[in-house]
């Protein structure tokens, strides 16, 4: 009894790597190994590159909007038309300001996911699943080992990125104090430069951390994807079919093929026998084939059935031990006989045709 329980335990233990079918099925459900840190790092990197390249263009839009606001809009009367015009113009200018960053954010999202998991489109995660709102399952997810690991990772990232940001500010603290004595243009340039330095430093750190996070996500994904030996067996049965059912199907197919073969015996010109162990039904039809071909063949009990059917339908039976054995071994049902048997089979057919003329 204890041995049986041990075997069941080991059979249920997930020790096997996931099969390609399971990987494909899970991928269709949207379950893949990916790191959000990679997405975040690439998004921030491209966003800061856009800020660096188009910073002057964005600054001009902002300053123009402020100048227009405090030189023209401030003198307008407050009416529905003026409010509508200010709203439209402000929206257009804001769209010009935000459009490059939004476009890059979309590109970064696609690029980071393609790098990790390739192209994947599925609506499976959007389907209603009551398990997702199950409070018991939710509590298990909140207090799981994975949740604890994610919490520690988040705290570590906050401390790590915060330390880099604080260090950058500390390095430029003296220059930051001196901005009080500089004009607006110089102050904006200084804060823009400092922000870019902090941003790229944080991005480099986040990219460094994302490598480890992606490695962990791959490891955790592979661990959760493992299968037990019983799972592998069940999957094989689902793909290939139950062996018992398969054997029954094959038996049924064999019986059907046997029935078709037996139905062809009455159409034979001759049945060549051993005489007891082998029986080969031969047919020669110039319209179908240039050489005689085998309609049916059998050994022992099957040979006896072929001879019985031939006798019932007055098909001539000829005894030729070596020819019957050779034809059974070398020619399949429906195939024409090889050239090496032409003469022997021709003699048999000639004898049959002569016999048929005498009978007629």
Describe the 3D structure.
- With 360 residues, this protein is an alpha+beta fold.
- The chain has 2 domains: 16-237, no CATH class; 264-359, 3-Layer(aba) Sandwich (name from scop).
- Helices cover 70% and strands 7% of the residues.
- The chain has helices at residues 2-12, 20-28, 36-71, 80-117, 135-142, 145-171, 173-178, 184-225, 229-240, 243-264, 301-312, 321-330, 342-359, and strands at residues 14-16, 227-228, 270-273, 278-283, 293-299, 316-319.
- Strand 3 and strand 4 (278-283) form a beta hairpin.
- The longest helix is centred in the middle third of the chain and has 42 residues, at 184-225.
- The protein is elongated, with a radius of gyration of 42 Å.
- It starts with a helix and ends with a helix.
Average pLDDT works out at 78
Spatial strand arrangement across the major sheet: 5-4-3-6
**Low-confidence parts lasting 5 or more residues at pLDDT below 50?**
1-11
Q: Helical segment tally?
A: 13
Separation of the first and last Cα atoms: 79 Å
C-alpha Rg, in Å?
42 Å
DSSP E strands, number: 6
Order of helices and strands: HEHHHHHHHEHHEEEHEHH
Number of domains as seen in the coordinates: 2
The major sheet is characterized as: 4 strands, mixed
Which secondary-structure class do the elements indicate? alpha+beta
% residues in beta strands:
5-15%
Helicity range of the residues? 55-70%
User: Rough shape?
Assistant: elongated
Keywords: Bacterial flagellum biogenesis, Bacterial flagellum protein export, Cell membrane, Cell projection, Cilium, Flagellum, Membrane, Protein transport, Transmembrane, Transmembrane helix, Transport
Pfam families: Bac_export_2
InterPro entries: FlhB (IPR006136), T3SS_substrate_exporter (IPR006135), T3SS_substrate_exporter_C (IPR029025)
Protein name: Flagellar biosynthetic protein FlhB
């Amino acid at each position: 009894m204890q041995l049986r329980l041990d075997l069941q335990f080991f059979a249920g233990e997930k020790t096997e790597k996931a099969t390609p079918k399971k990987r494909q099925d899970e991928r269709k459900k949207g379950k893949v190994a990916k790191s959000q840190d990679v997405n975040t790092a690439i998004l921030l990197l491209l966003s800061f590159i856009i800020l660096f390249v188009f910073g002057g263009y964005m600054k001009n839009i902002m300053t123009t909007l402020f100048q227009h606001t405090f030189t023209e809009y401030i003198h307008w009367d407050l009416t529905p038309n003026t409010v509508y015009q200010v709203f439209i113009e402000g929206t257009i200018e804001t769209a010009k300001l935000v459009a490059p960053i939004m476009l890059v954010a979309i590109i970064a999202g696609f690029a980071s996911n393609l790098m990790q998991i390739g192209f994947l489109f599925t609506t499976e995660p959007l389907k209603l699943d009551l398990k997702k709102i199950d409070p018991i399952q939710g509590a298990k997810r909140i207090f799981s080992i994975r949740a604890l690991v994610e919490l520690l990772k988040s705290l570590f990232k906050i401390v790590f990125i915060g330390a880099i940001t604080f260090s950058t500010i500390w390095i430029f603290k003296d220059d930051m104090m001196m901005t009080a004595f500089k004009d607006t243009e110089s102050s904006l340039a200084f804060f823009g430069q400092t922000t870019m330095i902090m941003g790229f430093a944080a991005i480099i750190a986040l990219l460094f951390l994302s490598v480890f996070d992606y490695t962990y996500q791959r490891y955790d994904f592979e661990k959760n994807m493992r299968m037990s030996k019983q799972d592998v067996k069940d999957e094989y049965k689902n793909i290939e079919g139950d062996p018992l059912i398969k054997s029954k199907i094959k038996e049924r197919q064999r019986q059907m093929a046997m029935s078709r073969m037996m139905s062809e015996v009455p159409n034979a010109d001759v049945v060549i026998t051993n005489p007891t162990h082998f029986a080969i039904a031969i047919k020669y039809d110039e319209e179908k084939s240039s050489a005689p071909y085998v309609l049916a063949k059998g050994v022992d009990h099957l040979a006896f059935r072929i001879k019985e059917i031939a006798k019932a339908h007055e098909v001539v039976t000829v005894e030729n031990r070596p020819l019957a054995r050779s034809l059974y071994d070398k020619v399949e049902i429906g195939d024409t006989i090889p050239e090496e048997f032409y003469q022997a089979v021709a003699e048999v057919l000639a004898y049959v045709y002569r016999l048929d003329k005498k009978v007629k």
